From TrEMBL:
Gene Ontology terms: cellular component: HOPS complex; late endosome membrane; lysosomal membrane
Protein name per UniProt: Vacuolar protein sorting-associated protein 18 homolog
Molecular function GO labels: protein-macromolecule adaptor activity; zinc ion binding
Membrane-protein topology: Peripheral membrane protein
Organism: Leptobrachium leishanense (Leishan spiny toad)
Any one GO BP annotation for this protein: organelle fusion
Superkingdom to which the source organism belongs: Eukaryota
Length: 926
């Protein structure tokens, strides 16, 4: 670092910046901000803490590699990453030759040392000794065009070399083949490819730049003191190593592009700006006789890569620049005692730094293409400039040039500047009657809202005002709900007014449709919907006041206010559309509400929609929509029956009201289907879903006797069923009479009813006899009273004979049963007599079958089969296996015995004596 004394001396060098005041044409936007200009200097200078032992004759810097020539024969190298480890290489020359120029490739690996004796040396970054380039001898090297696309650490690849004599040579240096059998072969080749001329003949080649554009198209820019040449050609991919001969060996009629200027300094210098080391350059600057030619580089152009050319002319003084460097936005010119920075956007002087004469005049200005640092050297000192925020004021320049997109690009991270640019752009568009573009810009500024809105109202630009409000609405924060509500309401009003104006003008049909779509998009935006959902009443009022029913329906759909939508369609007799809305959104409540109206006009479609809804609808709640049609037998009723059948058959609906209503519809309009429905429902009252009494009343009301008979049967009212069935036919009555199978008395009674009807009403004796044979409970004598007195017995002869035969057979059966009973009684008396003579005996050693203790120790039971049990043992075994009711009965008997018998001991003794005496008594009677 510099010492305190040196810093004091450096402070004597004055750096001046032109005034950075704001453009007086820029209106204040209302943005509350701090000062825009309290920033560090754009170009900050630092003198390197280095005192050269000899004068510096030349200096180059690339990729942090700094090389300088000191005196006549010393090369001083510094890796700026390791600045404390400099390297010094001697040329080893004892003659009067000195270094003319140094050339360092962009990677910092290859250093060319041109001497004033028309010789050239090569020094690799990894080498400590220079190498002679014998093929280069005899040429005064003035410039080198490096091939940054092919060059490597061990070789330069094909490069171009320009000489003072005006010749361009193609050469290549490679260390990979150095040290072969026949000695070093460092310079691979060195061949002439072209000569640059001016009007007086060959002229020195002052600058060379090699670049590769798109599609493998190469371009070479070469300069002389007065002319700039362009050579371009497409080189096949993979053949780049073969060199640049194709660029220069073109047909004679294909001349290179030339730029020529009259002034002549005797020298010129070419510089380019590249964003990154190996990227394609985007701009150039050429310092020549009467000024600096600068512009953009576009290698996609077929004729010339130079575009947007401008010339910055020198001042009228005789002072001319010595060297030039191009940055992104500035041209830096080096004079003997100062450096100037010219803005390439407006050609204004932006920076000037004057040096003292202590270290000698300024010699050379160079730039490190990799890091962007700028270096200056005198004979005794080296300076470095760091470029900070070079684009800080670019936005202002672009803004003054009305290039607002570029201005915004360079103030993205500076909201105060961005606000100024937007305000200026908005005003510019407004003045040029580009109202929509102006509105978009105004919406992004902090200008007063009311002022801007009034501007558009005054010029009657509703579409621009709408655009402004839309952008403002979009930029509101989530918490600004009141502002959002006001804006959405105002926008709705503006849209409706604008649409009304356009609709009345037939020539504005396309604009009307476009605006209508924009309005609908505005309404449908989720953020706007969330805002309007609590303000929907106001929006509805606006739509109604304008009579815009189309958008009222559209808005209602967005708000999911389907009731309003369906109601609107119904009021306008658009029932199909109303049903379509119901079917699409599947709102059960709305189905229940609007089905009565829709069923009056489109019953089939409504029932189809109900069926499509399936179990989502409660059929019971749809009955009111169907009841209105119960008095007519038209299509509507048929559709009602269809839906009720769907509920019963498909949905397996068990609701009694559904079944009752279907039954009533059948009874009224489809009596043929009623009996099938009743039979399908079954005959078990517990499994039937309709009301039996209601069904009986409906069937009776419509005189459907057969159906009534079925209901009576289900209700087990068999007498009523038979009575009513006899009005239909006897067979139906017979089927009813057989139902009470477990009540023979009732069954006989029912058959007697049938027989009486057959005899008395139909007067058909044969049928009566059939009835007699159909029921085995009836006898001829049961039905004889029903016949009139004048009926002859011949009609009953067979029946009477059959009856007498039955009686005779029955008497015989009774006789047989009596004989069997007599024999059974006789056997029982014999068994009883035999039982009296049976006995059993107990020996003293006999034991209880359960506990295996002596039997005579306690009361016991003796069975004639041989089993013996103590009383208590038998109770323990038998009682748990008895049913509950028998256990209870046994306990009662024990209680009764206990209250009437003697104590157990005396009772046991007495019983034992009784048993013994009984045994003795039985033994005495064989």
């Amino acid at each position: 670092m510099a010492s305190i004394l040196e810093e004091y001396e450096d402070s004597l060098s004055r750096a001046s910046f032109p005034s950075q005041g704001l453009d007086p044409d820029i209106r204040h936007s209302g943005f509350i901000n701090a000062s825009l200009e309290t920033e560090i200097p754009m170009f900050s200078k630092q003198r390197i803490d280095f005192t050269p032992p000899e004068n510096i004759t030349s200096l180059v810097v690339c990729s942090n590699q700094l090389c300088m020539s000191l005196g006549r024969e010393t090369i001083f190298r510094i890796d700026l990453v390791k600045a404390d480890q400099p390297n010094q290489v001697d040329l080893g020359r004892k003659d009067e030759s000195r270094v003319h120029k140094l050339f360092l490739d962009p990677s910092g690996s290859h250093l060319l040392i041109a001497l004033t004796t028309n010789e050239c040396f090569y020094l690799n970054r990894n080498a400590q000794k220079v190498k002679t380039l014998p093929k280069w001898r005899g040429h005064q090297i003035e410039c080198v065009g490096w091939n940054k696309f092919i060059g490597k650490d061990v070789g330069t690849g094909p490069i171009l070399v320009g000489t003072v004599q005006g010749h361009i040579y193609e050469a290549e240096i490679s260390t990979a083949t150095e040290g072969g059998i026949f000695g070093p072969n460092l310079d691979q080749y060195f061949r002439h490819v072209h000569t640059l001329e001016e009007e007086t003949g060959p002229a020195p080649v002052c600058g060379l730049e090699i670049d590769r554009g798109y599609g493998n198209r190469y371009c070479v820019i070469a300069t002389t003191p007065k002319r700039l040449f362009q050579f371009s050609a497409k080189i096949t991919e993979g053949s780049e190593q073969q060199g640049f001969s194709l660029l220069f060996n073109q047909p004679a009629d294909t001349l290179p592009s030339i730029q020529e200027f009259p002034g002549n300094l005797g020298y010129s210098e070419l510089t380019v700006y590249t964003q990154k080391l190996r990227n394609i350059p985007v701009a150039f600057a050429w310092m020549m006789g009467n000024g600096v030619l600068y512009g953009n580089l576009d290698f996609s152009r077929p004729d010339s890569a130079l575009s947007d050319l401008q010339v910055w002319e020198y001042s009228s003084t005789n002072e001319k620049p010595k060297s030039i460097v191009l940055t992104q936005f500035h041209i830096l010119l080096l004079y003997p005692d100062r450096i100037k920075a010219i803005c390439i956007l407006n050609g204004q002087l932006m920076f000037e730094d004057v040096f003292t004469e202590k270290f000698g005049p300024l010699r050379r200005l160079v730039k490190d293409p990799a890091l962007g640092q700028i270096w200056i050297h005198t004979e005794r000192a080296v300076y470095r400039y760091n470029v900070k925020h070079e684009s800080r004021d670019v936005w202002k320049m672009y803004m003054s040039m009305d290039k607002f997109d570029l201005a915004k690009e360079f103030c993205k991270d500076r909201p105060d500047c961005m606000d100024m640019v937007l305000a200026k752009e908005a005003e510019y568009c407004f003045q040029n009657k580009k109202y929509k573009e102006s509105a978009k810009c105004y919406a992004l500024t902090q200008n007063y809202f009311e002022e801007i809105a009034l501007k558009f109202i005054e010029v009657k630009q509703d579409d621009a005002l709408i655009e402004f409000l839309l952008k403002k609405l979009l930029n509101l924060k989530q918490s600004e709900k009141i502002q959002a509500t006001l804006l959405t309401t105002w926008l709705t009003e503006l849209y409706l007014n604008y649409l009304g104006t356009l609709e009345s003008n037939a020539s504005q049909k396309k604009l009307y449709l476009k605006t209508r779509d924009e309005f609908r998009t505005f309404l449908a935006t989720q953020k706007n919907k969330d805002c309007m959902i609590n303000n929907r009443a106001s929006i509805y009022e606006l739509l109604a006041s304008h009579g815009d029913t189309e958008h009222m329906v559209y808005f209602a759909v967005l708000m999911q206010d389907y009731e309003r939508v369906v109601s609107h369609h119904c009021q306008h007799d658009d029932y199909e559309e109303a049903l379509q809305v119901l079917s699409k959104h599947k709102d059960e409540t709305l189905f229940y509400k609007f089905s009565p109206v829709l069923m009056q006009h489109i019953p089939k479609s409504v029932v189809d929609a109900w069926i499509a809804m399936g179990k989502s609808l409660v059929p019971k709640k749809l009955i009111p929509a169907l009841v209105n049609y119960s008095q007519s037998a038209g299509t509507q009723i048929n559709e009602a029956i269809r839906y009720m059948e769907f509920c019963v058959e498909e949905l397996q609906e068990n609701e009694q009201a559904i079944h009752n209503y279907l039954l009533s519809l059948y009874a009224q309009f489809r009596p043929d289907s009623l009996l099938s429905y009743l039979e399908m429902a079954g005959t078990s009252s517990n499994l039937i879903h309709y009301d039996l009494k209601y069904a009986l009343r409906v069937c009776a009301e419509h005189e459907l006797h057969h159906a009534c008979v079925h209901v009576y049967r289900v209700m087990e009212l068999y007498e009523e069923a038979v009575d009513l069935a006899l009005k239909v036919n006897v067979d139906l009555a017979k089927s009813c009479a057989d139902l009470p199978s477990d009540d023979e008395e009732l069954k006989k009674k029912l058959w007697l009813k049938i027989a009486r009807h057959v005899v008395q009403e139909e007067k058909d004796v044969k049928k009566a006899m059939v009835c007699l044979s159909s029921c085995n409970l009836l006898k001829i004598e049961d039905i004889l009273p029903f016949f009139p007195d004048f009926v002859t017995i011949d009609h009953f002869k067979e029946a009477i004979c059959s009856s007498l035969e039955d009686y005779n057979q029955h008497i015989e059966e009774l006789k047989s049963e009596m004989e069997d009973a007599t024999q059974s009684a006789k056997r029982i008396r014999e068994d009883m007599q035999e039982m009296r003579n049976k006995y059993g005996s107990v020996d003293p050693q006999d034991k209880c079958t359960v506990c295996d203790f002596p039997l005579l120790n306690r009361p016991f039971y003796l069975f004639l089969c041989g089993h013996m049990f103590h009383y208590d043992c038998l109770m323990q075994v038998v009682v748990p296996n008895l049913p509950t009711y028998k256990q209870v009965k046994l306990e009662d008997l024990q209680k009764k015995l206990g209250s009437t018998s003697q104590p157990s001991k005396s009772r046991s003794h007495t019983k034992e004596e009784d048993n013994i005496s009984l045994g003795r008594s039985q033994q005495s009677h064989p």
